[in-house]
Amino acid sequence: MPPIERPAVLTQSPPSAETQGRKADHLRICLEQNVQSQLTNGLERYRFTHCCLPELDRDQIDLSTTFLGKALAAPLLISSMTGGTEQARLINQRLAQTAQRYGLAMGVGSQRVAVENPDLSPTFAVRSCAPDILLLANLGAVQLNYRYGQAQCQRIVDWLEADALILHLNPLQECVQASGDTQFKGLLQKIEQLCRALPVPVIAKEVGNGISASMAQRLIDAGISALDVAGAGGTSWARVESERAPDEKQRRLGNTFADWGIPTADCITEVRAIAPHIPLIASGGLRDGLEIAKTLALGADLAGLAMPFLRAASESEAALAALTDVLIAEMVTVLFCTGTANLRELRDSQVLQRIP
């Protein structure tokens, strides 16, 4: 097999040092500061109906599923987080090893920094330690309006040996970020062109402010293969950017909009109402297996977690294993105590009720 080409540097690309510094700041702030939204993810409004006699063998509960044609042992996505620094390299390797061990999906952080500086590409390189996982490349969608195109997207997919490409949508973060990329005009058409040209599925993902039903429909019409709603209720990237803001104006913007967005639960139900069959990832403030199970019962196909995995990965491989074990045990317990043997039954049996 010939060596995979590393992403080429864009001509007149912005300095990678600035992007790399931003990556390091994001990682540090997320690990050291309280940057959670004060909004809830909305899942507290739902409760499972308990089954006192499951008529099941707990050891035979089946969490397996498929997503974009790839088999998974559990409906878990280690959400896109980081890359571009030495600390990020170690974290990504630990996350990938965990995904391989447990049969999970994984997304890497934005690979823009690797396009700007191919020497940083190894900080994303995880396929060698996770040959079988569903692996997702990642780039900010707005970069399509800043000289990026099919060639750059194809190269980061090829280099990562990714199964799909995430285009993340982050208009609020770009507004709060000093010198953010805010030229979003005409972007939907470029996304549509990329979806037609790229040979792998393209996933549209928010970064913590949610995807509405109307916007989901426009993205689906443009050719998006899957959606990650990434609703409000978890990490607030407006708050993250306010922590690293260079002046009072940007700090105030971040604080004003720290709790902006559509709660995750609302995103799932609204998107499912208009798109019953689109592959759907629920993320945004999920913290345990009970919340994961709620999103699946509401109609999501996968549940994505970032901050819990990030904190565990920054600690040790053992901490990651312990976290994953308990998440799986919590999901199995939900299925067992609702009398549902697998994920299809969980979704179809209407065991999740909205609290009056």
From TrEMBL:
Catalysis: reaction(s): isopentenyl diphosphate = dimethylallyl diphosphate
Subcellular location: Cytoplasm
Lineage: superkingdom: Bacteria
A GO biological-process term: isoprenoid biosynthetic process
InterPro entries per UniProt: Aldolase_TIM, FMN-dep_DH, IPdP_isomerase
Top-rank EC class of the record's enzyme: isomerase
Presence of keyword Ubl conjugation: no
PANTHER family: ISOPENTENYL-DIPHOSPHATE DELTA-ISOMERASE
Name of the protein in its database record: Isopentenyl-diphosphate delta-isomerase
Organism: Vasconcelosia minhoensis LEGE 07310
Lineage: Bacteria, Bacillati, Cyanobacteriota, Cyanophyceae, Nodosilineales
Gene name as annotated: fni
